[in-house]
Request: fold
Amino acid sequence: MMFLYKAFLIALLLVIAPAVLGSLLTDFKRKGDGSLTALYVKGWLVMMAVFQLFAIPLIFTRADFTTLVHAWTVVIVLLSVILLVRNRKEYYKIWKQYRYGRRETVWPYIFAIELIIVLTMAMVLLQHVDDDDAFYVGTAVTTLQTDSMYEYDAYTGDVYGAFPARYVLSPFPVFVALIAKLTMLHPTIIAHTVLPVFLIPLAFMVYGLIGRELFGENKKAVGFFLLALLALNLWGNFSVYTSSSFLLFRIWQGKAVLASILLPLVIYSAGCLLNEKGRGQDWLMALALALSSCMVSSMGIFLMPLSLGAYALVYLVTRRKAYVIGRVLSCCTPCIIYGLIYIFAL
Amino acid sequence: MSEMVRQAYNMFQGDSTYLVLFYIALLYAFIADRKLRELLVYPSLTVMVIAFMPVTAKIIAEYIIGAEVYWRVFWLLPIIIVIAYAATHMIMSRKKASSRSITFLVLLLLIALSGKFILTGENFEMPENYFKIPNEAIFIAEMIKEDKGTDIESAAPKLAVPYELACTIRQYDASIPLLFGRRPHDSRSEGSVEVYETINSANPDIEKIAEIARRNRCGYIVLAVSQQPLSSPEDSGYIEVGRTGKYILYKDGTLF
Reply:
């Protein structure tokens, strides 16, 4: 019975919540924007961005971890309820489409989805030992057991003299601890066994969104695109430094989420944002992407502006429109702020 | 290209030809679809210029991410996205379903030959538990929890362990303080590096361990069953608490 209850909590937090929260960044009137895939991907961005907004001030004011959990949960629940009520007609349409809509049998697409499921199951059933978990998973366990955030060294349990500069601005392990607290599971089980179930498919959903940007509504092409990406990831262990290695070896670590999910998502986000018809939701999505990147890894604080900046430079040259610089600078504001804190205050 | 960038690039690409496939795919994408140049080709080229140009590379390495992890800049290159795009475009340009399938299989073979398969016994193993950490870490942690009385809890709560347990035991139970973790040089306990080196050797120096451990309120040590200490732990006042398949847990009998 307890197992079912925990499974329900996991589904609520990691499936339903993102699917609802994604509507904050969605323009349902725009074609392709209201797909479940897009909603789910954007929903994760909302969860991580909201977490980052609360976590940093609470960490620096040395608040309890429980305070962060309560604050984040209240906001997420309120936001979810408001969005569900506001967009109830859209969700009803989506439900009707999936329940009663005509389905095309497009073999590459279906084959790709089946293989993604098999790959995810393999990653859940198998184990890869990574010594970096001593810090990242150790931090999640330390956070939950001491009800504090970055007060104790994850390696030894000693009290930190000062905040660990490289890690304190990117509290992804604290997010793992939050999921553990809300689902009543041990953080190490969340990291090693639960998160891969959601994050590996999330990476492929991002690829799917990119595939739609590249090939439009051609499901066959998107199917082949996903199959190619499956193959490229499965044979991508030519060094331990590739995004494929990070995706399949240690997706529960923040830098793996950055390399395999958030940086590729820039392609999708930049395409929307830098288009002349880019709208408020596109700007919000890029902002959420920047916040999420900062949250998952200190590399994100610096790499995300580099990535978005490269797109801005290209669009500035090809379209000769100055607005792109302004849009990208605005979205990268969190990165600039955290970067300045990192350089001057830590 | 500076030496630092070359090293980082070589580390990143390993022995494969994936990056060669990427450059070919980039050229293909440039020719195949003008509309996608802005989305795929030009940003990739911009990142490559930033990453390889000595001036920008130096700024990024020295002031932003650090030279030792410069290879992470290459995460900005959408390598597998571009290769997958080119492969898909090639497949979809075939008119017949049979030629599409053949093209798909040929490209799959090319990808397999260019890369390195990830699902091997070298990279993965069957887990021993839901935590996916060695059972030994759990057994040792549970033994300590069962053994700890108030005296040793307040007087000498720390534990000194071999490397494998230093990386895993606090993933199970963070209430167990360690004399040193994965990186002994970062530990605040004096003498951690010396204890780390000897406790991970084939012949640990128990007297040295005991002397440093007692200075640092470290009441428990773990040795591997396969190790042959220079002297018996019992001669230094240690009492065996229990053992697992691979390890023996001792507590310092002089502390209570």
Q: What stands out?
A: The radius of gyration of chain B is 27 Å. Chain B touches chain A through 80 residues (CB under 8 Å).
